Amino acid sequence: MVSAALSPLPAPAPAAAPGLRLDVDQVSHAFQLEGAPLPVLDDVSFAAEPGAFVALLGPSGCGKSTLLRLVAGLDHPSAGHLAVNGAPISAPDPSRILVFQDPTLYPWRTVEANVSLGLEARGLLKAQRRRVGDALSLVGLSGFASAYPRQLSGGMAQRVALARALVNEPRLLLLDEPLGKLDSLTRITMQGEILKLWQDARFTALLVTHDVEEALFLAERVIVFSERPARIKADVTVDVPYPRHRGDPRLAELRHHLLGLLGLDATW
Ligand SMILES: Nc1ncnc2c1ncn2[C@@H]1O[C@H](COP(=O)(O)OP(=O)(O)OP(=O)(O)O)[C@@H](O)[C@H]1O
After folding, report:
1. pLDDT digits (tens, 9 = 90+) for 156-195
2. Best exposed site among 73, 124, 132, 265 by fewest CB in 10 Å?
3. What pairs with residue 56 in β-bridges?
4. What is the ipTM of this complex?
């Protein structure tokens, strides 16, 4: 018999934690506005498999960001249930990170110090400082660790915001129009970067976007919402393998279909 102590095997590399399964079950939500209820979500149900990339598309103000906030655990639904891997969502958790349209970096902190925030808040920075460098490298900003936010372009600032999320090794990444304020060329570049991050890390991704092309380039499924209160109008599978070519005729067909669902004329 060979003793393990006599023939030590190299420790296997730790497997990346897989993406979380998300269940949204008959969720409705209303805000109180000037003393009257404002219904925002109406009986929304869907599931995202671990590692799925799902885009949420719908008219402005229909309730998409509200849904992301519920998944992040920042608010509680008026009715229905949300769960990850079968466990009810009751509060924020570092495994579920929300990235906003506005990078909201602290101007007095360097890029590195901004990215460190999550680890610092959880008392993990000393032990896991390596993750800060890894996250910066993932978004291509290794050379800017000691820069300040005022020294960055809009795209770079949004990359820092992504790195600040990635440093927590999220298993469910919630993207609320993260590229909405960027010029169209930077936006296209960063769509490719987000796709690569997702393909490498295999977190589950939920992306709110107004941009039909962005949804079709990135997501495996596009859930289309009605006007507020948001109900699911359609759940469309993007049956085009990655890497996707933006000129793919099937994507053009799906674009036409999605614009139709949104009540928009797709004549070009
Ligand atoms: N804290 C709040 N109190 C009251 N009403 C709110 C609150 N947050 C959002 N709302 C309202 O809920 C509705 C949905 O807002 P939400 O931000 O979820 O929409 P959205 O689909 O993400 O919009 P957009 O695409 O324009 O960002 C809006 O009418 C908004 O005014």
Report:
1. 999 999 999 999 889 999 999 999 888 889 889 989 989 9
2. 265
3. 208, 223
4. 0.97
